[in-house]
Write a structure and sequence with these properties.
This protein is mostly beta strands. Helix content is 0%, strand content 36%. It has strands at residues 10-13, 30-32, 36-40, 42-45, 56-58, 62-66, 69-71, 78-80, 87-96, 112-114, 119-128, 131-134, 139-140, 145-147, 152-156, 159-161, 164-167, 172-173, 178-180, 188-191, 194-196, 199-200, 203-204, 207-209, 214-216, 219-220, 226-228, 233-236. The strands form six sheets. Strands 1, 3, 4, 6, 7, 9, 11, 15, 16, 20, 21, 25 and 26 form a 13-stranded parallel sheet that branches. Strands 10-14-19-24 form a four-stranded parallel sheet, with no helix packed on it. A hairpin with a 4-residue loop joins strand 27 (226-228) and strand 28 (233-236). It is globular, with a radius of gyration of 19 Å. The chain starts with 9 loop residues before the first strand and ends in a 58-residue tail after the last strand.
Length: 294
Amino acid sequence: DVDGDGVGDIILSGDVNNNGSRDALESSGLAINSGALTVRNLDFRGFSGNINGGVLRANGGALTVEDSNFQNNSGTVINSTTAVGTAITLRNSTLHDNSSTIVGATAMSSLVRLAGNGSYVLENVAIYNNSGTHAGGGTVASGGILILNSATVQIVNSTIANNVFTYTGAGGISSAGLGWTGTATGLITVQNTIISGNTVNSVDANLQAGTAYTNTTNLIGTTVNFVDAANGDLRLAASASNAINQGTSTGAPTTDLRGFERPRGGAVDIGAYEVLYDSAPLVDLDSTTGVQNT
């Protein structure tokens, strides 16, 4: 973040042949096998991976990703192995306009795969406007976030919205937002999170919960008014009364995805973005009149 605006200024590209499109020559990204790796203020684009790779993959150790952006990638974006002790923390980051379709294959992956006896935290994360096509056999439990095995997962103040997936073959896709099967035996907690507008074959498919989980003040499958969802602005509109000041403060982060303080109103907002003003601020531009101007 060279200019200090909180946005990554360095783009890491997997577009090996620099042709601006996703093809079989694109590369996977970074992997950690042990120890600790922190990725901060980076923009990842043009990478291609499958369920054994990904833009970022933790084969072991602790991976922390903060203040980063992932877009225009193919296949798996954030991936993990089944190794005991693997940990991933994804915080204050965005994943959008990626395709979960695996280049050169008929199948698709999940954008975020959390597997094994590991510990995973997603906090202030926005996953939106992603897509993918599954033309192979078998069922993909989730095109968005997939939880596997005995993973312990905590998703807090995140927004998973408007992800669109399609299956055209003999297989299927259970969820376009968040999903896991009955074989997932870990502790799963979802709090202050929006999971809305995610579809499979044009039908709402926001959550596939194979087992019980802790569900605290979430908006799942509920219409939420965003500022401009079609163009990727997932901030809450002033009319989003079901999300503004409706969250649970205990366990919530003290800032939002952009770094603005939470809460700004009477309580924490649900989703990755905190509303800064309930109404437009009044500013007196002409102090001689004593009347405030907007």
